[in-house]
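Hi W., the flavin-adenine dinucleotide complex you wanted:
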Amino acid sequence: MMMPDANALPVREGMDYDVVIVGAGPAGLAAAIRLKQISPDASVLVVEKGSEAGAHILSGAVIDPIGLDRLLPDWRDDPERPLTTQVSADKFYMLGQSGSLPLPAMLMPPLMNNHGNFVGSLGNVVRWLAAKAEALGVEIYPGFAAAELLYNDQGAVIGVATGDMGVGKTGEVKNSFTRGMELRGRYTLLAEGARGSLSKQAIAKFALDAGREPQKYGIGLKEVWEIDPAKHKPGLVQHTFGWPLDNRTGGGSFLYHYGESLVSIGFVVHLNYENPTLSPFDEFQRFKHHPMIAELLDGGRRIAYGARAITEGGWQSVPKLAFPGGALVGCAAGFVNVPRIKGSHNAILSGMLCAEHLAPALAAERSHDELCAYEEAWRVSDIGKDLRKVRNAKPLWSKFGTLLGIPLGGLDMWTNTLGFSFFGTMGHGKPDHASLKKLSDVTPITYPRPDGKLSFDKPSSVFLSNTSHEEDQPVHLVLKNPEIPVAKNLPDFGEPARLYCPAGVYEVVYGDEANRKDPRFVINAQNCVHCKTCDIKDPAQNINWTTPEGAGGPNYPGM
Ligand SMILES: Cc1cc2nc3c(=O)[nH]c(=O)nc-3n(C[C@H](O)[C@H](O)[C@H](O)COP(=O)(O)OP(=O)(O)OC[C@H]3O[C@@H](n4cnc5c(N)ncnc54)[C@H](O)[C@@H]3O)c2cc1C
Ligand code: SF4
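Structure:
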């Protein structure tokens, strides 16, 4: 692909702020709000690639209110508050193909208790937080993707550049061309969520992950259903593990009742799965046919679909947070508590913590240096306390499989609650892209056809994510080596991108279909829901997720 020569393009216009924040998720907005609470005169800009704040947010979500309580202590009195359903019951099941075994609540470590938490849409929480931030004077630019980090001569980050608009598929400049902008800040916060594209660059450039365990991920697929009101139990929170995944594949389901007859149902597959013929999307579709789930959804209507990667490395994988000129906040650093499947509270707390260290730096007229005090603070903060206790849950599950790993993880969480662990701090071993076995070494998984009532295909699902991109633009899923998918990934793994992508972006088509000859790798980039799974799981690490034109991607209604 020929890209326009940057030197031949008009110079970018620039704007200067005290703080530029990339990403209007809970972390970025909490940082902006907290900073304006402490330093009302600070100029703060948040850039968001979604068409509006919340458009790209996908979460469960059962939300621990610790973050909101600290950020906006009066939030429960706000008539517009986005969370109104409190958890009323908390159930955990181990599933077999047709049966289920409830796990007694008394076996669960206290930290797994959802009492006092809220069920709702994190996307709607974010929309509400964006309004609060704007009321405090924060500028929010939705529809602008931060495409590039800007550096000064000393190598410190001095802001970001938004992507150019109006560049055609083959790199030609169209009539609609608009040059991106330089958004410069004394400090730049990366709040892009799991596997942020600029965060990935900053982590590599400043070796922020040196001495840390590799970051681990899962892919979470989610649907919202409107169900028969007679079956709706507001505040019921249900998790399962086991079927349809085998013992070597980590993951499980979540199912939350909230609002007016709404159910949020989702499935997470840990991305260290080994079988390249596994399709997380189809595991989710199959899961809904379990009698316990089918009975609940029967007669209901699916109203939304989406997918997003979730960080799973926890305590031992969090990179160094501060770098010259900025810092990572929220899931860009990976603050999810995996056994609780919760990260939004820590996203908010980390945004606040960072802001609390930014404010004195701004007051001291500092800029473009490292916020060392923020780096030092997180492990002894409530975020560190939350993550440390559960640090072995994921490695034990990966090492011993579901049947043994989950009880061992439970035991370790109990002993950690009492202040010790038999396992110390376990490592994660390989990164997720290195876990696939060769096609020749596995039994291929076959999936039943969707019935169109409980289970669906990818095109009709992507339709419900309201995903749209300008079609005449360079493909934002950049192959470092275009030969690898067909020359290497196809013979070795059956090209797993066809299966792990939850949006049907990747296909292998054959010039001679009958004889499976002349394979070609096709990228339907316009379907991408920005989950980032390809960037994580491609075994050759050959796919680089870059930002498409701003406002492209899903338009989630309330995920
Ligand atoms: C399936 C699933 C279920 C979950 N369930 C729960 C749950 O029940 N409870 C819970 O607490 N947590 C849950 N989590 C985790 C929770 O969603 C995350 O911890 C939380 O969203 C992290 O917040 P964040 O602000 O760091 O990132 P995000 O919420 O991902 O927000 C990042 C924002 O930055 C924007 N962005 C990214 N890159 C750029 C760029 N280059 N330019 C401009 N904008 C950019 C994105 O569009 C997005 O709006 C779940 C996650 C998943 C995937
Ligand atoms: S192309 Fe990559 S980021 Fe986009 S939906 Fe597919 S796996 Fe996710």
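The chain has 14 helices and 24 strands.

W.
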